[in-house]
């Protein structure tokens, strides 16, 4: 099942040169794990809550590949280039299949909650 790495970033201009080096090197760290950008540094249209930053979404073939990418020596090496200069929240999450049914999920959760 497809999985995603999501980054919520709050960059402060001007960007540090190390951030540009990170951007130049990240794709090479993703390639061995089948990773690709879905969105990169876009400012979201916020409809609920508050967020004053940018969003990055990466897609991987599955959660194991996403974890392997994040834990890879190549990616670990470049993390400080971003993290030392841009406050971020980074998360990995499984996607859902084409047959996902939110109503069925709600019914199952409701039943489980009742005991």
From TrEMBL:
According to the entry, every stretch annotated as the DUF1330 domain falls at: 3-96
Q: Which InterPro entries match?
A: Dimeric_a/b-barrel, DUF1330
**Which residue spans traverse the membrane?**
none
Q: Name one Pfam family in it.
A: DUF1330
Kindly indicate where the leader peptide sits in this chain: none
Official protein name in the record? DUF1330 domain-containing protein
